[in-house]
Amino acid sequence: MYCVHFLMGLNRGNLVRAVWVPEERQVELQSPAGKFWQSMGFSDRGKQCLQAEEALYLMECGNVQVFYRDLPLSIQEGYERFLSSETLTLHQYQVYGHLKRLGYVVNRFDLSSVPSEYERQLNLPASVDSRQRKPLKRKHSQSPVSSDNRSTSPLVKKTAEHQSETQVKSNESLAGQTTPDQPQEELMESFPAPEDSSERTWWREEHIQPPSAQSQSRAPRWDFKNLSFPDLGSRSRSACLASPDPSLLPGALEVGDCHMTPWLRRLNVKEEKLSRRERDRQRDRDRYHRDINRDPKVRDCRNWAEYIKLMEERRRQQQKQRPAHLWEREVTPLTQPVHCTSHREVMEQISIIKPSSWSEGVSRLPPADQWKISFDVYQPDTVAEFKKSHPGKPYSRMCVCSFDGPVPDLRIMKQLSCQSGDVPVTFAVVDHGDISFYCFKNFRLPSDVY
Amino acid sequence: MTAEAPDKSAEDGLSSAGGAGTTGTRFDLDKETELRFEVEAGERVQLELLSGMAEVFGSELNKNKKYTFGPGSKIAVFTWHGCGVSLTGKTEVAYVSKDTPMMLYLNTHAALEQMRRQAEKENERGPRVMVVGPTDVGKSTLCRVLLNYAVRLGRRPTLVELDVGQSSVSIPGTMAGLCIERPADVEEGFSVQAPLVFHFGSTTPGTNIKLYNKLTSCLAEVFSQRCEVNRKASVGGCIINTCGWVKGSGYQALVHCASAFEVDVVLVLDQERLYNELKRDLPHFVRVVLLPKSGGVVERSKGGRRESRDEKIREYFYGFRGTSFYPHAYDVRFSDVRIFKIGAPSIPDSCLPLGMSQDDTQLKLVPVSPGRDLTHHVLSVSSVDDDAEPGDGQSRGILESPVCGFIVVTAVDTQAQVMTVLSPAPRPLPRHTLLIMDIRFIDLK
């Protein structure tokens, strides 16, 4: 078996010799690389190296002969030695090989090469172009997430963290606000204290008098019959007000009677401008809305406190009158009869599943360990111009999974698409060597009712 | 109030006007008339009281003192018993008018003063008055007149400013309460020394009516607490100035304000429909009064409103007529502050967690990541504690916390992660929670 393979390579005349370095989990080339070097391999400390999957693929193609302990490895041994949980799984390699054979350029996915949301927003050039990142010089990484993602910009990361933190905080504050009773002392303390507390006193007054108990007479506090407001609205009033008591006026003014008749004529000469909708609404309101003061119970109220209490009671009662079989169980109707004034409102109220976009709320999700993007894939027609140092934007990114494993849920898909940035993620599902590709598209359900 | 021989002072006034060599125009006003004038753009007009007594929006004029009014001012000098005044400078219009509703306003004041007396006697709270009406009917002016009359009688009324578009207390986009302790300055208006200001963030209540109503309730709560500890403030009552938006939700906001402040009197200016609706929707123990607007009220254009808003913000930073204050400009690192916007976009009720209602999204604090689009925005510095967690039940929320000041972002450097701000006080910022306004201010001039 060895010999046959060995001879096949020799016959081609361009078989590249290489050595498997198990500690580094990579293959070092011993003789100059062939044409494959354009899209595969990397340099490590001046040596040309191949990733495990690259070496295996090239072995299968018959381009590379890999030696281990001075003995050439068979393809079967290559599968056994190169593929492990620390390099690639068999499934991942199957996808890799499949795509490679179809002509695609396939690289391991490196999270740090994806511009962050923030960088994209600012339209910064992709950090791949910057000098400090040298993908060719990378040490092999145990996972697709390379260790040098810390060196991207720490500030950017920091603000992102800060944002998510504040977001969480604001959520908390929301919860805090819903608690109805807040200590009143807090409120007074939070008010900025004036500089000269002797002069202006918002809070502290030397002689604090306790407010007296509410006067318990049945009549309202103010007797407006004896308070002569110059009200142009009440036509029944006399058209002339007697001159007010000078002691009530500033500078002890003495003024004559106040004639109101001339003002009646001058009121509202201009017609109020209302749109048709406003006029309709007003007509409806006038039709169904009665004067609240015709209600004897309201007439019995003497002040705001009693009135507000009455309204509160009424509202509670109204809620009680709702049919019990609908409203007093765990599941209640989504709409209320009073709220259905337009199609739009009804649609909004009954739409249980909220349309959401991929990028929404991803930063708050805990990272999933099982699901990782494995490869960047570049289209075959770009191979001629492909440069390993500037790979550019991939055509797609691959996430490898199996039919035996779980189906990715929305959270995972959101996370992966967030990691991937503006490049689509394709799921390669392996079923005993058969590979099917799936991708998800983001679109909005048409809603023509609005 | 000074008893001087009118003839002599009249002569003095004439000679001083003539002696200065200026082209002062003398106006002699009969009793209960007013002189209305507008200052031309780019001009200044000096007003001087030569004889008799006169007042500008309820503040008395001192005799032989020169008052200067800047471009665009619209002033009415009213006299109860007749006076002589002189105007120096270019005016757009200047005329004497007999039909002024000051007599009705004075009678209104008299009735309110009666209520204050009764409150004093019964150890109760004084009248709470809400002034409503459409735009450009003189709501703010009526408030100023009533407050001036009250404070001249030794009362301590409170001005509650709910007009977020044209605030007379603080910059636009805020809702404020101000304790009035002395009559308004003829030129500058009420002295604004320790106002209680809440951040609203926009110039019309329609952008977030829930927040508007909530802040109204907040102000009412603070005012009630103040009345409990300060007897004088309680007797003085309050005068609430409202927005000119009187239809739909704007009207609902007025009714809500009436119940939050538990108002006793509603003064409706110049709109019978509003008067009838309020009579119908407010309980019988609230007195609704219809008053005419003054013939001197001038309608402001949209541009004029914008300019006056701009002027108000400039006044905040540079002082009255841009001369008295010297604001500071310094850099603030993004990492040192947290910036919020109030109100998230609305989502259907059914998508919300159980027990949460739509109010919560309109009142939600959304963190804003600093960017170039922040430039020229006005930011409020919230007085909430920096280390207080927003969800902390102990502290007052950011929404309900008053504002300690305002800054304007003049430049943003996203590379260096800093922004340059214009601030009334030198660095550092007193607090680090900032709320963004829709309002922009470009620091020119």
Question: Care to give the gist of this entry?
Answer:
Chain A is an alpha+beta fold and 450 residues long. Chain A contains 14 helices and 13 strands.
Largest sheet of chain A: 6 strands, mixed
Task: Identify the CATH architecture of the domain at 9-88 in chain A.
Answer: 3-Layer(aba) Sandwich
The major pleated sheet of chain B works out as: 7 strands, mixed
Rounded radius of gyration of chain A (Å):
40 Å
Q: Give, in spatial order, the strands making up the sheet with the most strands of chain A.
A: 3-4-2-1-5-6
The largest sheet of chain B has its strands arranged as 13-12-11-14-10-15-16
Binned, the helix content of chain B reads: 25-40%
Strand content of chain A: 5-15%
Tell me the quaternary state.
Answer: heterodimer
The CATH superfamily of the largest domain in chain B appears as: P-loop containing nucleotide triphosphate hydrolases
Quickly give the structural class of chain B: alpha+beta
CATH class value of the domain at 9-88 in chain A: Alpha Beta
Taken in chain order, the helices and strands of chain A follow as: HEEEEHEEHHEHHHEEHHHHHHEEHEE
Distance between the termini of chain B: 41 Å
Any idea what the radius of gyration of chain B is? 23 Å
Write up this protein.
The complex is a heterodimer of chains A (450) and B (445). Chain A is an alpha+beta fold and 450 residues long. Chain A has a domain at 9-88: tRNA intron endonuclease, N-terminal domain (MutS, DNA mismatch repair protein, domain I, 3-Layer(aba) Sandwich), CATH 3.40.1170.20. Chain A is built from 14 helices and 13 strands. Chain A has helices at residues 2-12, 52-61, 75-82, 90-101, 117-122, 154-177, 184-189, 261-266, 276-288, 296-300, 304-320, 324-327, 343-350, 410-420, and strands at 16-21, 26-29, 42-44, 47-51, 64-68, 71-72, 105-108, 240-241, 258-259, 375-378, 396-402, 425-431, 434-439. In chain A, the strands form three sheets. Chain A has a six-stranded mixed sheet with strand order 3-4-2-1-5-6. A five-stranded mixed sheet of chain A has the order 7-10-11-12-13. The radius of gyration of chain A is 40 Å and the shape is elongated. Chain B has 445 residues and is α+β, with helices and mostly antiparallel strands. Chain B folds into three domains: 25-97, Clp1, DNA binding domain (Jelly Rolls), CATH 2.60.120; 101-291, 3-Layer(aba) Sandwich (Rossmann fold), CATH 3.40.50; 327-389 and 397-440, Elongation Factor Tu (Ef-tu), domain 3 (Beta Barrel), CATH 2.40.30.330. Helices cover 27% and strands 28% of the residues of chain B. Chain B has nine helices and 23 strands. Chain B has helices at 6-19, 102-122, 139-152, 209-229, 231-236, 248-261, 272-281, 302-318, 359-362, and strands at 25-29, 33-39, 45-52, 55-56, 59-60, 66-69, 74-79, 83-88, 91-97, 128-132, 158-161, 174-179, 196-199, 238-241, 265-269, 287-291, 328-333, 338-342, 365-367, 377-382, 403-413, 418-423, 433-440. Chain B has a seven-stranded mixed sheet with strand order 13-12-11-14-10-15-16, with helices on both faces. Chain B has a seven-stranded mixed sheet with strand order 17-22-21-20-23-18-19, with no helix packed on it. Chain B has a five-stranded antiparallel sheet with strand order 5-4-7-2-9, with helices on one face. In chain B, a hairpin with a 2-residue loop joins strand 4 and strand 5 (59-60). In chain B, helix 2 (102-122) packs across helix 3 (139-152) and helix 4 packs parallel to helix 6 (248-261). The longest helix of chain B has 21 residues, at 102-122. Chain B starts with 5 loop residues before the first helix and ends in a 5-residue tail after the last strand. The model of chain B is unreliable at 1-21 (pLDDT under 50). Chains A and B meet through helix 5, helix 6, helix 7, helix 8 and helix 11 of A and helix 2, helix 3, helix 4, helix 5 and helix 7 of B. Chain B: Residues 133-319 form the Clp1 P-loop domain. Chain B: Pfam families: Clp1, CLP1_N, CLP1_P. Chain B: One of its GO terms (biological process) is RISC complex assembly.
